[in-house]
Amino acid sequence: MKSSIDHIKSLADACLELLDHEERTQSAFLVDLTDAVRLLQSDTEDRRLRQLSGQIKELQERSELFLRMTRNNFLAEIKSEIAPAQAELDDARLGRVLAALTQRVSPSLKAFCETLLDQLITATGAERGFILYYLPETTEAEVVAARHFETTNLSLAEYDVSRTLLREIFARGSPLLLEDAVSDSAYGREASVQRLDIRSVLGAPMLHGHRTVGALYLENRSLPCAFNAGDCRLLETVARFV
Fold first, then answer.
1. CB under 8 Å to 172, separation ≥6 — which residues?
2. pTM above 0.70, yes or no
């Protein structure tokens, strides 16, 4: 789920881009205006033209000063505060997820995974997800817990997209974040992606040593860019803990 911090950062980046564009536009405009005044001055020594030339120069200096102050002071300070704030947010979410797991002694693996899945869905804003255990030696996999899937039968059609993406996660041994699966160059042409209209996907392998023994998988089918880098770090850290 995109946090307010991500929104602030994107606004700051957009503002910086706008300032750069405005600086280039103003500079080009003032150069053209100055050149035009110089051409007029070559034909006449009118005092008003000399005064206009001085005003243009002052306007250019003030504009450059304003742009430098805005970019270097205000926006830079905002961006410098974002990283530690984002880290605090990530730590707080991770703390809540792990606390929920350690404060309750689950009577079974299924109950443990259901608690974990509920916490991850709440923390990331996912619409649905599942936790899968995997035996690489036999390529057998079992969905231990699922939320908002009709069944835990991994062979059914509602898991078509998941199976494709899980193969990628297992092969690379690292998290996978898709901001918009339907538009993704690698996966958007998959018939199952189009049929199920999958938007945001987030998955992370569970590793035991160098062996992949499962995966955490989350989806949001209604919103693109529902997950961000912070969500990806959260899922990866939780996967290591599990």
1. none
2. no
